[in-house]
Task: structure prediction
Amino acid sequence: MAKKRVAAIVKIQIPAGKATPAPPVGTALGPHGVPIMEFVKQYNAATESQIGTIIPVEITVFEDRTFTFILKTPPAPVLLLQKAKLPKGSKNPGKEIIGTVTEADIEEVAKIKMPDLNAYDLDAAKQQIRGSARSMGLKISG
Result:
């Protein structure tokens, strides 16, 4: 069997278990001729255990209009906001502190994000997560 040729790779962020054919899914996949409802059903089934979290997905579209997709880990800011129990980050990150996360929260987020980060070890991953927290106006305690 010959390898399928890749027509496009589409990256979008969708709430877990709540994908619909409406934008952003429809507008991202429509031009490539992908059966949108089929993708929506498969994505919702794959993410139903994580409802309420934003999950990035990388969709590989082949020339025969079939597709495969890979689920990524949630974005670090989303995980940090969940830990801090806040709706959104600071409007003035360098000047205004809107919440606090603990060092244990940083480590937990780093462990979750480790497969998607370009870090060699957990300490490097924690440094990246600390930077994200600071740029959102979060104070790190402990």
Notes: The beta strands are 6-15, 54-62, 67-71, 99-102, 138-141. The longest strand covers residues 6-15. Helices lie at 25-29, 36-47, 76-84, 103-113, 122-135. Residues 122-135 form the longest helix (14 residues).
